[in-house]
Amino acid sequence: MTDTATTAPVPAPFLTAWFEILDGDQPDKILDLISDDFTLSILFSTGDGNATDFAGDRAALVGYLDQRERGTRTHHLLSATTLGQDELFLGEVRRAGVPEATFVAAGRVGDDGRLQRLLIGRSSEIRFN
């Protein structure tokens, strides 16, 4: 993913695009990007000592999407890398531009270009400033 010949490539192109779609007007479009054997775990902590784990297959991702507050939170890249089929993405969640949480995502992209595995951990208790 590059803009021009002078622009560096995006370090985790799939997950970067994933979060851009998730933050956009049609977040359900990410469902088009997952493989038939997709599995995930999104461990979501808000810092109150409780956490929710959205784990499973496509249905778990649909459940996660259904409970999200659309248009209030955005995902911002802090650092990322790709190694073979695996992408790692360290990011910050912001609410109305104000940092709210840090998250790390790991994804495996299959040979068909769709996401097979997704693991995300989110905490409001640590920042990577």
UniProtKB/TrEMBL annotation:
Question: What's the protein called, per UniProt?
Answer: SnoaL-like domain-containing protein
Which source organism does the UniProt entry give? Answer: Streptomyces ochraceiscleroticus
Upper classification of the organism: Bacteria, Bacillati, Actinomycetota, Actinomycetes, Kitasatosporales
